[in-house]
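Need residues for this backbone.
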C-alpha cells in the first residue's frame, strides 16, 4: 500500500488489525484509493494526506470496537464529519484509520419545553434546523458550511450569529465520547448550569479529535424570532465601518449579526453573485425580535451608522429580500476563490478585543495590499473576529511562504492586543507555532492532558501539538 505520509511511529492496517476491523465494519471498511483521497483533504490549503483506510461507522459500539483495535495495534484514528474544516483537521498526516461518522445522523430527542435537542455526531446543522422548524426553534450556531454537529463541537465552531447566541462552547450542554481506552464517558448535563467536578464537556469541545471521539451531543436551542430584519450599509473607510459596528454594540442594541466585507471582497462578490454593491467596506446586519423591536433596532442602527460617513441604509424584512441583501456575505468564500481562478484560500481568523479591532483590521489590510497576491477580508466584527483570506496558488511555494509570513504578522499584532490566533477555525496543522506563542507554558499543560488521556497518541496525531 502506498504510504506517502509519515507513518513510521505507527502500525499498518494489515494482518490481525485488518481482519479485526473487517469483522466490525464489513463492506463499510474500504481501502479504495479515491475514497481515501476524499477523506484526506478538507477546505484548507494544506497538502492532502490520505488515511490507509476509511470506516463508515453506524453507531457508538462500532467506534468503541475500532478504538480498541487501533489502540492494540497502535494505529492512528482520524474522526471525519463533513470535511469542511479549514485547518487540516482531517488530513491523515500519519495515515491510519479515518472514522467517518456521517451515517450516525439520528436526531435522538427534541425537548421543546427545555429548548434542548440531542443528536448523533453525524447530524448536520441544516438537518437539525429542518427538524426543529415545526417546534418553533432553531440551532443558532452557523459557521456557513453545512457541517456535522460532531465536527462543529470538536472544532468549537462559531459563525455569524455568535455575537448574540454564542459559539459551540456555550451551546453544547452535554456530550458522549469514546476515549482512547475504549471507555465511553458522558460529560455535562441537560441542565442550564452545573458545578459538578471538572468541566470535561468544555475540554472535549474544541479538542479537534485529539482527546476523544464525540458520538452524541445535547445542544441548547433558541426560539425562532417573531420577526427578522436585515440591513446593508457601506462606508467610506474600513475604520469607519468598524467604529460604527462598535458604536452599535456599545448602544446595547441586541443585534444578532454584524458582518463586515472589505472593498476587495465586495468587488469579488459583485463579480461572482452579479450584484451592484458599492465597492466600499460594508456592514451586513441582522435583527431578531418582535415587529416593533426590530424596526426600532434598525432605525437606531441607521442613525448611529450615519455618524460614521455611512452610505444609504438598506433594510428588509421579507425572507426573499433579506436573502438578497445577505447574498454577498453568504457567497463570500466562493466569490473569493473565483476572484483568482485556481487559487486556494489561506484563511486566518484572529480574534481581538473590540477596542483593538480597527487597528488589527487596518494592519492586516496594509500587509495584504503590499503582498504579491490578492486577498480579501470578511469579519464577524460583532465579536472582534475577522478572516483575512490570502488567495494563493497552492503549487507556488513562494506564495505559500509569503502568505504564512503575513499571517504571522497578523497573529503577532493580534496577540499583542490581547487577542487570540484563532477565533473559530482551530489549530489543526496550520497554527501550531502560533499556539505556542499564545499559550506559552500552558501548551505544556495541554500536552500533559493529551498524554494522560491518549498515551499512545492515536487520536488525530500531528494536530494542535
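Answer:
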Amino acid at each position: 500500500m502506498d504510504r506517502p505520509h509519515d507513518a513510521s511511529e505507527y502500525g499498518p492496517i494489515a494482518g490481525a488489525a485488518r481482519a479485526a476491523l473487517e469483522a466490525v465494519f464489513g463492506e463499510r471498511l474500504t481501502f479504495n484509493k479515491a475514497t481515501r483521497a476524499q477523506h484526506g483533504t478538507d477546505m484548507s490549503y494544506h497538502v492532502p494526506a490520505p488515511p490507509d483506510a476509511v470506516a463508515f461507522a453506524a453507531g457508538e459500539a462500532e467506534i468503541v470496537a475500532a478504538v480498541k483495535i487501533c489502540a492494540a495495534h497502535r494505529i492512528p484514528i482520524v474522526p471525519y464529519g463533513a470535511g469542511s474544516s479549514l485547518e487540516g483537521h482531517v488530513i491523515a498526516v500519519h495515515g491510519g484509520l479515518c472514522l467517518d461518522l456521517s451515517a450516525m445522523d439520528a436526531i435522538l430527542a427534541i425537548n421543546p419545553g427545555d429548548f434542548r435537542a440531542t443528536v448523533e455526531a453525524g447530524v448536520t446543522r441544516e438537518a437539525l434546523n429542518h427538524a426543529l422548524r415545526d417546534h418553533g426553534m432553531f440551532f443558532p450556531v452557523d459557521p456557513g458550511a453545512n457541517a456535522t454537529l460532531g465536527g462543529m463541537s470538536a472544532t468549537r465552531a462559531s459563525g455569524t450569529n455568535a455575537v448574540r447566541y454564542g459559539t459551540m462552547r456555550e451551546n453544547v450542554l452535554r456530550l458522549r465520547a469514546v476515549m482512547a481506552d475504549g471507555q465511553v464517558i458522558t460529560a455535562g448535563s441537560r441542565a442550564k448550569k452545573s458545578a459538578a467536578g471538572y468541566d470535561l464537556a468544555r475540554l472535549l469541545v474544541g479538542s479537534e479529535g485529539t482527546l476523544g471521539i464525540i458520538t452524541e451531543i445535547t445542544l441548547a436551542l433558541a426560539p425562532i424570532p417573531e420577526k427578522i430584519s436585515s440591513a446593508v450599509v457601506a462606508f467610506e473607510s474600513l475604520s469607519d465601518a468598524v467604529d460604527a459596528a462598535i458604536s452599535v454594540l456599545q448602544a446595547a442594541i441586541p443585534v444578532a449579526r454584524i458582518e463586515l466585507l472589505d472593498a476587495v471582497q465586495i468587488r469579488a462578490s459583485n463579480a461572482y453573485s452579479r450584484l451592484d454593491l458599492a465597492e466600499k467596506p460594508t456592514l451586513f446586519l441582522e435583527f431578531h425580535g418582535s415587529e416593533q423591536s426590530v424596526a426600532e433596532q434598525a432605525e437606531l442602527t441607521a442613525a448611529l451608522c450615519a455618524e460614521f460617513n455611512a452610505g444609504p441604509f438598506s433594510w428588509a424584512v421579507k425572507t426573499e429580500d433579506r436573502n438578497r441583501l445577505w447574498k454577498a456575505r453568504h457567497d463570500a468564500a466562493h466569490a473569493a476563490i473565483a476572484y483568482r481562478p485556481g487559487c486556494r484560500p489561506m484563511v486566518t481568523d484572529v480574534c481581538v478585543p473590540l477596542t483593538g479591532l480597527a487597528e488589527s483590521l487596518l494592519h492586516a489590510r496594509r500587509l495584504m495590499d503590499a503582498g504579491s497576491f490578492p486577498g480579501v477580508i470578511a469579519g464577524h466584527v460583532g465579536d472582534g473576529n475577522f478572516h483575512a483570506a490570502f488567495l494563493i496558488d497552492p503549487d507556488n511555494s513562494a506564495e505559500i511562504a509569503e502568505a504564512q509570513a503575513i499571517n504571522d504578522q497578523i497573529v503577532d499584532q493580534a496577540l499583542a492586543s490581547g487577542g487570540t490566533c484563532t477565533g473559530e477555525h482551530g489549530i489543526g496543522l496550520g497554527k501550531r507555532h502560533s499556539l505556542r506563542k499564545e499559550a506559552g507554558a500552558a501548551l505544556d499543560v495541554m500536552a500533559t492532558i493529551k498524554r494522560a488521556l491518549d498515551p499512545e497518541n492515536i487520536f488525530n496525531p500531528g494536530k494542535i501539538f
